[in-house]
Amino acid sequence: MSATTALDEIKIGGLGASRRRVEDNRFIRGKGSYVDDIVLPGMLHMEILRSPFAHARIKSIDTSAAWKIPGVRLVLTGEMMASRNLAWMPTLSYDTQAVLATDKVRFQGQEVAAVIADDPYIARDGVEAIQVEYEPLPAIVNPYQAMADGAPIIRDDKLEQPDNVVFDWEIGDQAATERAFAEADLVSRLDLHYPRSHPSPIECCGSVADFNRATQKLTVYITSQAPHIVRAAVALVAELPEHMIRIISPDIGGGFGNKVPVYPGYVISILASILTERPVKWIEDKTGNLISTGFGRDIYLHGEVALRKDGKVLGVRMETLSDHGAFFSDAQPSKFKIGLMHSAFACYDIPAAHLAARGVYTNKAPGGVAYRCSFRVTEAMFFQERMMQAAADDLGIDQAEFRRINFVRDDDFPHRTPYGFLTDSGQYGKCLDIGLEAIGYADFARQKEEAAARGRLLGIGISAMTEPLGAGNSREYDILGIKMFDSAELRVHMTGKAILRTGAKTQGQGHETTWAQIVAHELGIPADDIVVEEGDTDTAPFGMGTYASRSTPVAGAAVAMVSRKIRAKARKLAAHLLEVSEEDVEWELGRFYVRAAPGQGVTIQECAMAAYANMPDGLEPGLEANAYYDPPNLTWPFGCYLCKVEIDPETGVWDVIQFVAVDDCGVRINPMIVEGQIMGGLTEAYAKANMQFITFDADGNCIGSNYMDYLLPTAWETPGFELYEVVTPCPHHPIGAKGVGECATVGGPAAFVNAVMDAVKGFGVRNIDMPLLPDRVYEAITTGRDISGAPPVKMD
Ligand code: CDP
Predict the structure, then answer these.
(1) Is the pTM here over 0.85, yes or no?
(2) Active-site positions?
(3) Which of 2, 328, 375, 653 could form a disulfide with 95 if both were Cys (CB 3.0 to 4.6 A apart)?
(4) Cα separations (Å) of 440 from 353, 425, 654?
(5) C-alpha dist (Å) from residue 52 to 77, 139, 292
(6) Is 511 in the pocket of ligand 1 (CB under 6 A)?
C-alpha cells in the first residue's frame, strides 16, 4: 500500500469539485430564513418618515396626530434621538451621518421621523399623520454645482466645513509623470463619467431589535454583511456592553456592498426596542432602499496617457471628481480617501503615474459605496480600459497589440504598480490570447465588412483588468481602527463530522458549500460531513465580514489554516493509535499511515474518535481549533473580457453578438460557483453599459426610485457569455486561491462600451458615457459628437 489509498478529492467534494450548492436546498424550496421571517413574541413594527425635499430646513415637526392613532406605541424624532446623543452617528469613512434629521434634510429620502406600532399598517398611518414644515433650500445635484462660487454649504452642521469639498487627495509621482509627458510623442486625452448606480439586492435592508431589560441583552437580527462590525459600532456608539450585544445576520438576499454600512433604520429600531422593551422590526421597502441606502460610482474623470510612437505607455495622469452625496459614508476600510482607485493600470508596466482625487458633498443619498468591487476599483478599471482603447486609437495601433506591448510580463513578478501596489502573479498575455482566439479576432475585419454590407456597424471591445482583492493586510486596512484580518473555527466531533464557523458572512456567494470543500481538501473529511455557519456574533469567531471579494483570500485562508491545526493534532492522535512516533507518520488525503508500513494506517475519523475516547496521556482532549489569518498581501486575480457588438445605425440599438470572458482567479475551489459569480458579474456589467442609471432632476428628486426607472436586466435581455479559465496560483494564499466574486462586474463594463465605441469611431465619436441607451448612440452617430455625463432627465 502507498499514497494511492488516498481519497479521491473530487468524490469527497474537495478542491476543484463542482459541488452543488448546499444552501440552495433551502433557498429553492422557499425555506431560507431572512430578517423579515423573524417573528418574536410581542414584536412591534417600525416605519420611517422620509424627506420629500433634497435640501430644506426643518422648521417644525408635529407628531401629535400620530401619537393619537390607536396602536401607535412610539414616535421618534431627531430631537428625541439628540436627547440620547444618537441624532448623528459616525460613518465608516470618519464622517458623521444624521440618524433622524434635526436641523436640515440633505437629500430626498432622508430619515426624518419613525413610528413604532402594533403592525406595519398602523405604523404607516402614523408616518402619514406627522406634519413637517420645511423651508426648501437650493439643491445641489452634481459636483460642479457643489464647487461653484456661492454654492450653499450642505454640511453646515460641521463647524470646520467651509465649502462642499469632502477631500482632496493625491497619489503617485507628479514630477516623474510630468517628465514622462514631456518626453511623449503623443498625449491621448479622455473625459469620462461613471454614472451613479445602486447595488439593488433583491432583499431590502431591515432589522429586528430585541432588548431584554431583565437580562440586559440586546439581540439584533440584521441584514448586515459585517455583523461583528455592527456589534462593535453598537458597543462604541450606543455605549452598550459588547458582551451583552448579539448580532445575527441570518440568510441575506444579496448584498453587493449595499449591506455593509450601518443605516439609520438599524439604529432607530435598536433605540425603539430599548425604549418600548419590546422587539421592534423595521423592514425597508424597495423605494426606501433605492433612494436612501448606499449608492455606487458617480464619478468624473479627466484622463491623459503619455505615449511613445511604438505603443509604449510612458505615463498616466488621472483627475477624478466624485459625488459622495450628503454624508461621506463610503463603506471602505482602506486609509485611502478614494478607496483603491489607484489600483488603476496595475496590469500594465507604466513607469510613472499621478492621480488627483477630489470628493464633494451634494444633495443626494450617501454614495461611493463599494458596489460589488474593492472600494472604487470598478471605476478605476473602467477608466483604465477606456483610456487604453482611446490611446490605441489615437496612436493608430491595434488595441490588442497595444495592450500586449504594455502588459506586465509573466516573469516580471512581483511587480510594483504605477501607483505603488505590489502584484505577485499573473499570465496576462495568455489570457488575452485565449480571448482573441475565442472571439475570432483574426477574422474580425472580414466580419466587419460583411456586416457593413448589411448596413450594420460591428465593433470589438477589450477590457483587461487586475483587481486587488482580500483586504487587508492589517498593516494597511482597518475599519474605524479595527484592523482587517479574518477567522475560522473548526470543531471535529467524535464521529468525524464537523462544524465550521468563520468571521465572513455569505449573502449568496455559496460559502456553506465552498468552505467545506477547503476542509475536505485539507483533512479528507467529506464536504457533506461538514456544516458551515456564519453571521452570529455569539457563536462565530470575530471577523470583518464579506465584501470586496475578501472572503476567499482571507476567511478562506483561515479555513485552510485551521484545518492544518486540526491535522497537526490528529497526527499526534494517529501516532498514539499506531504506536509509533509522530515523525514516522505520513499523511495522505483522509488517512495517516506508518512510513515504513503504509498498510498500517488510521483515518481522520478514527483520530477524531480517539480525541474524545482514546487520547494519549498528557494530550488535551477534543479536536477543535481556531485560526486568525492576516494576509501578507492582497490577491490579484486577472480578467480579460472581449465583446463583439452589432449596431443598427438607424436606431442606435446595439446587440451583443459574442462575449468571451477569460478569468484567472488562481486555484478554483468550486469551478461551478466561480462560473456563476462571473456570469452574475457580467450581467451587472451589461446592465451598467446598456440600461441602468440613477439620475436626479434640478430639484434633487431621485429618478430611479423604482424598477420602472432603474432597470435590472432579466434573462431575456442578458446576452450569453462564453467562459474560459487560466490558473496562476496566488503565491501567498495557503491553497493558491484569489478572489473572484467581483471581477466581472469590475472589468465587464468597459468591454461592452469599448465594443460600441469601436463600432462608431468612424463617425468621429470618442466617447459615449454610460448607459449607452439607443438614443444616445443614435445621437452620437448622427451628430459625430461625444455624449457626456448622466442622461438628462426628460420632464413631461
Ligand atoms: O467575498 P466573496 O465571497 O463575495 O467573494 P469570493 O471570495 O471571490 O468568493 C465568491 C465565491 O466563489 C465563494 O463561494 C468562493 O468560495 C468561490 N471561489 C472559488 O470557488 N474559488 C476561488 N478561487 C475564488 C472564489
Answers:
(1) yes
(2) 225, 372-373, 742
(3) 328
(4) 34, 27, 19
(5) 16, 12, 12
(6) yes
